[in-house]
Design brief:
The protein is of the alpha+beta class and about 350 residues long. The chain contains ten helices and 16 strands. A hairpin with a 2-residue loop joins β6 (about 75-80) and β7. α3 (about 175-180) crosses α10 and α7 crosses α8 (about 300-310). The relative contact order is 0.12.
């Protein structure tokens, strides 16, 4: 009998030594960035730049994830430094985020590099090593939201083959700008999207109000996140497709006749007014560039500037990013920093 009791006590002590605290996805100590809504047992991260962050004390922890297709990529950021890149599987699994951390307080963030077209990821819970503690980080007072295309997504940043496999929203101008102002980030962006026409059937005015871009029936409650600043960078894809009358999407949107300058200006105004209705007090910065839509002689900067002028809105501004030839070939890190520099002046 004594031997049995001894074995039981030994087992309990051993179990306690290796016990891990489970922190579910909806724990109040977790701070989420980006547009999302919690589900019954998980939260879905889909838009580029979506992230979760928290304070941490302990040796290490892991996270429980399941990706749509096993193609999404996440930066693991510890104390402001990217320490690894995580690619979750399409089967629910546990992934180690950190181990062997030094004693003291740390900050940890899981940041989505890839856009919704690559997939979405279900986050279920975190597991903390024995004795570890998780804490709420101070809330950021500034909130900024970006609407855009592949430039805003960070498509092919650092990818010399322009295949797009190295999409990295963390280094895109919007994310860099948000960090420069210590602001929360919301990034509503999709590669190839346009204001009036895209390389696929949907355009931004049809997608901007969704919780998730891939789910047309999911409608966002704009009172859940109220930015002080909204940045819009749209028109680059339109500028190409309006000159391609044989393009399937050109025909679907315009028939046989390309839109006139007046029609393009009105399309800009209509979308800017939609955003103004959602955010009555926000500063709206309407941008274009820095791909070839802003090259010398292009009419597109004029379209945007006319639209902003006709808005007659004291908090609506136009900002043209100068044409950067390397950016037309691939969205590189220097070009993204240049755009960020214009926004942070």
């Amino acid at each position: 009998m004594k031997r049995i009791l001894f074995l039981l006590v030994t087992l309990l002590v051993t179990f306690s030594a290796f016990a891990q605290e489970i922190v579910r996805f909806n724990d109040d100590r977790l701070s989420y960035n980006g547009r999302m809504l919690p589900d019954a047992d998980h939260v879905r991260l889909e838009w580029p730049g979506t992230s979760v962050r928290f304070g941490f004390e302990g040796s290490g922890l892991s996270v429980d994830l399941k990706d749509d297709h096993g193609a999404d990529r996440y930066n693991v950021i510890i104390d402001g430094r990217v320490t690894s890149i995580l690619t979750p599987d399409s089967v629910r699994r546990e992934y180690e985020l950190a181990k062997g951390l030094s004693k003291g307080k740390h900050t940890i963030e899981l940041f989505k590099r890839t856009e919704g077209g690559v997939g979405g990821t279900s986050l279920y819970q975190f597991k903390l090593n024995k004795g570890a503690k998780l804490s709420k980080l101070p809330e950021r007072k500034r909130h900024i939201e970006f609407y855009g295309n592949s430039i805003t997504c960070g498509m092919a940043i650092g990818d010399t083959l322009t295949t797009g496999v190295d999409e990295n929203n963390y280094l895109a101008y919007g994310s860099v700008t948000a960090r420069a102002f210590n602001a929360d980030l919301s990034c509503i962006a999709k590669s190839g999207i346009g204001l009036m026409v895209s390389w696929f059937p949907e355009i931004m005015p049809e997608m901007y109000d969704r919780v998730y871009g891939t789910q047309p029936g999911s409608k966002w409650d704009f009172s859940r996140y109220v930015p002080q600043v909204v940045v819009v960078d749209l028109g680059q894809n339109d500028s190409w497709i309006v000159n391609q009358p044989q393009n399937v999407q050109f025909k679907a949107r315009f028939g046989e006749q390309a839109p006139s300058a007046a029609v393009i200006v009105q399309a800009y105004i209509a979308f800017f007014k939609e955003l103004r209705e959602k955010y009555p007090d926000a500063h709206i910065i309407c941008t274009l560039g820095s791909m070839d839509a802003t090259t010398a002689g292009s009419p597109w900067p004029g379209y945007l500037e006319t639209a902003v002028k006709d808005m007659n809105d004291a908090k609506c501004y136009s900002l043209i990013f100068p044409y950067d030839p390397p950016l037309t070939k691939r969205i590189n890190i220097p070009a993204s920093k240049n755009i960020n520099g214009w926004l942070t002046v």
